[in-house]
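so i finally got all the pieces together for this one. its three components total, 1124 residues if u count the protein bits. some of the lines might not be protein, just check the labels. i wanna see the whole assembly predicted at once instead of chain by chain like last time, that was a mess tbh
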Amino acid sequence: MKIAVCVKAVPDAAAGRRIDPATNRLDRSAELAISDFDTYAVEEALKLKEAGGDGEVVVVSMGPERAMDALRKALAMGADRAVLVTDASLEGGDLLVTSKALAGALESEAPDLVLFGQQSADGGGACLWAAVGERLRRPVVSQVSELTVDGGSLTGKRQTEFGYDTIRAPLPAIVAVSDAINTPRYPSLKGIMGAKKKPQETVSADGGASGTTVAGLNPPPARGESRRIEDDGSAAEQIVEFLAEKRFV
Amino acid sequence: MSVRPSDYPPPFAPSEAVAAPTDPVDERIEVGICIVGGGPAGLAAAIRLGQLMEEDPATAERLGEVPVAVIEKGKAAGSHLLSGAVINPRGLQRLFKDRKRVDEMPFYGPVPGESVLFLTQKRAVRIPTPPTMVNHHNYIASLSRLGRWLAEEAEELGATILPETSAEKLLVDGGRVVGIRTGDRGRGRAGEELSNFEPGSDVAARVTILCEGTQGHLTGAALDRFGLRSENPQVWALGVKEVWKVAKPLREVVHTMGWPLRPGRKYREFGGSFIYPMGDDMVTIGLVVGLDYRDAELSVHDLLQELKTHPRVRRILEGGERVQWGAKTIPEGGFVALPRRFHAPGLLLCGDGVGLVNVPALKGIHYAVESGRLAAEAAWRSLARGASARDALASYDESLRDSFIWSDLREVRNMRQAFGRGFYLGGALASAMTATKGRFPPGNARTERDAEQSLLSTSRASSYPAADGVLTFDKLSSVFASGNRTRDDQPNHIRVQTKVPREVAEMWARMCPAQVYEVGEADGDGTVEVNLAPSNCVQCGAITAKGGRLTPPEGGSGPEYTLT
Amino acid sequence: MAKTLVFLEHHEGQIQKGSLGALAKAASAGDAHGVLVGSGVRSLADGVGTTVWVADDERLAAPLPQPRVDVLAKLVRDEGYDTVLFAQSVLAADVSAGLAARLEAGVNWGLVDFVGEQGRAPQLQDTVVVDVGWSTPVRIGVFRAGALDATALSGSSEVKDAAVELEDFSTSAEMVEQAHAEQQGPSIEDADVIVAGGRGLGEPEKFALAEELAKALGGAVAATRAVVDAGWYPYSAQVGQTGKTVSPKLYVALGISGAIQHKVGMQGSGTIVAINKDPNAPIFEFSDLGVVGDLHEIVPKLTELVRARRS
């Protein structure tokens, strides 16, 4: 079974994520590392490969050339190959651009299963998997906290606001896994040292045009008047009044 | 009865850090030369080895598939590096020769000018720059940033950098160092194996070079194991610093002495501050205090906050914003505390780990680089056909003694100890030493263990400013500003007795810049419990100087410095 | 003037409040119609107060995203909607992104407001509010949970039938078993209300105070790193830099000092109420209502009053 894992190289948290005032987009000039959420997807792919006995795990990412360093962590964990989709025109691309570029690379790879991590550590809320699944015309299952693959189909436990659904879909399919699904392994020393030797290729792709713009940045609104009271015996009543004002009770 | 932290030694035996190899031969990681520590010493060694490999590929073959491995416990090279820094470029120039010019190195420019100020609470008096501190021809740098750059250079020359990897044990077989063992990852609070537990590995190497920096874990173990310790114990200072974005450029390098440190002999508060420009829009400010201080309420972090309220300092930072914070110890014993030898079978020792620091000049980075370079050359000589490994490694000691490191350190060998006599007498003695280039006073003044200083209680803490979140900051938000995101459920990596007299517990709580220690419940017999929050730890090493013991936590833990 | 289609998500016979909020917002900016997708959902369209398209088909019974993309895409193309709005949910997230790819339409999510041609979206843990726009003929927007008020519309509720033409690949995933969970109480990531306990609670048993208040408010219980370290509460409830990040509508902090390691995990909360006996606790700098007092006295009374109000 061939499993592709789509990962994103994001500015390392410690470097301090910030918006670049020149472009109004996330400043991506800092050190890049694999988004934490994506390591769960890499781990799941490795577990499936180990359970199946053979197969291949390919990490696919869209980013600048220096993102390849970040992809090495996935190789160190045990992935077999890394493919970086890179092109100046893709820089700062939004969901439309990224999904198109990734779908292009994935079509060439033709994997049986494509895994995503559940959230983007920097952009927050981006549902890349749904857009990629649409472009590839394949079934998509997200928020998966348990995944089994049997023959030509998968069964996933999907977590929604209302509890867990059990979904079945035929392969090839796209799955976004939540951080509840596993505990990612630490790369072994051998793994880290061997990562450099594994195949790493860069490909170009056409992402088309972005569909969104960023017009400006604003500081967050002040929290508004902050009230402070000292308890004189009536604090509980005052709190309830406040909550009622805000319609919590 | 006066209380001394050394009366409560930590539950740690140096032999815990030394072991025979245990992994089966086919599971061992084989490397040619194993360098522990991705700082200026370790990376200089890696770079020099890379250059030698280029010049002589035949010998390079002897080192195998992974000729040079650098073991780094931080998230990346640079994550645990912290210094002022004003760097003497000599070490780097000798390392790179004509391959790199100084203007290609990641400096913030040459020192534009300098002044030394003596501070009182409200005033600042400029004093002539002591000759040992003149910084003409030196360059301002962030050591963390320099480390990242050196790592890239080392990798280009063929070194394998292994970040997030701690070196837990020195592997000794038949009286010879044969490599190191890396630390486990994925253990829980009680040491239990978690679902993603990954055991450490034995890394076998022909030569092991320890460049661990201050309070080096394996370095300490090696000094004991091979009987290399000097008669004079090592002593340390704790430096706490911040990096600020500023509204107005600072155009000179500033050092201060005096306030907020007290000159009286009984306090033993030796140190001062540094304020350096980093380009036009950033400034770094730090305070360094010798850990032989006696006041249990002394907190270097809080003294730094107090320092910032001085009108002269406040002006520099006005309108700015703090962007990073960090802390680290500096070995201050100098020449008299150097080990008897810097080598053992299969082993070489470099840098701050063995105390190659010139305290009066506040310089150690160029010595680290030079010692790394010399160690690389000695290790290389041991590979030559027919070479005696023992003689080759011993030649490292000779090369150190012939180097500028030795002559520099010898000249200033008694200065730091002089300040144990108080600021004014110490200052006078220091001047005499400078004027005579170290010939007066003759002999070698002894050092005393920091933890053996008995504790005093004053109401020092009453002068510490309350954190306002703009100019002054509390410890927890400072730990955040170091980039520390250590996983909470790791095993505790700090060894201390957890039932000690109140003054000792209070001293630790104040001493630690990261708020790791907390005075707990009283036990009714004059002692209190000590509660720890080890995931706050930024691995500065102060606890080791003052009665406990820092051991390396899981690889990748601790601060993620980028500008320190 | 915009012509907007709003995805009306529903669960167990009720349209979700967030969807109604998006509808109300859209109505203030132009024509706003809703779309209901499911099986046996026609009756939900009553009283919505505007035109509602109903795609009613047993193939649409399970709340799966891809068939909904088919239905919405066709509606947008056939009826010429230029804006499609959603309220954030697990389902809406997938539908909106799939629809964006289908229509080559730009999508902005995490919106808290919509003004003219732009939306406003807080990003980077709420440290910056970004003005976002669209450069495609059709615009898709997803509103943050709890950002909008579900004020009722007063127009006439016309019901129209939406065509149901589904792609093969959209229907290849099937619901084997749908969640029927009796809610035990929301998980802290999904909860609208969180009551969090810190060291000020004094001892592990006192977490019962937080639990009772949470139950009364219909919320979840969270904990700070300090008390999780001390073993008072499980790690799964930890909020903060090394725990979870939450942004409920209401965050009640009991005995929590508000150190930055905790703050970054909850600073996006809508309303923050803090009770702490230390007047200098940093949490008072970013709470909406700060109460300096003894939580052991205040909280039990508060819980009773809340229960009384809610019943």
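Chain C touches chain B through 15 residues (CB under 8 Å).
The two ends of chain C are 44 Å apart (CA to CA).
anyway lmk what u think
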